[in-house]
TrEMBL record:
Highest rank taxon of the organism: Bacteria
Keywords annotated in UniProt: Dioxygenase, Oxidoreductase
Gene3D superfamilies: 2,3-Dihydroxybiphenyl 1,2-Dioxygenase, domain 1
Residue stretches making up the Glyoxalase-like domain: 16-119
PANTHER family: CONSERVED PROTEIN (PTHR35908:SF1), HYPOTHETICAL FUSION PROTEIN (PTHR35908)
CDD domains in the cross-refs: VOC (cd06587)
Organism: Brachybacterium endophyticum
Protein name as it appears in the record: Glyoxalase/bleomycin resistance/dioxygenase family protein
Keyword Oxidoreductase: yes
GO molecular function terms attached to this record: dioxygenase activity
Amino acid sequence: MNTSTTLTLGAYNAEAQHPYDLARFWSQITGGDTHPGGDCVYVAPAGPQGFGLFFQPLEGERPARQLAHLDLTVPWGSRESEVERAEALGATVKWHVLDEHPHVQWTTLADPEGNLFCIAEHPPRD
């Protein structure tokens, strides 16, 4: 049985040591507005192509290994400037992958709490 459904990303949910501070960082990265609610903060999508983020207090110890991360895509030729902007907001560059795959190059960064994320660009198609 084939049912046709279009899935979109509603929100990426994460635990944070400091949900309000981390939401502020991600709000600046994505351009979304923050909406606090108790101990949690929602960062709304910045427009119809955006996605939401939801930060709640960290329960217990921070895991030793991160099991998932965001891959953010920017237009070809703008990755370096977006990486610099992320660094100015408090991110840390971890490594660059520029020649491993012909269809993408990316930089892996860590947000202020150490959560990894990537900023990637894809070359234009001929």
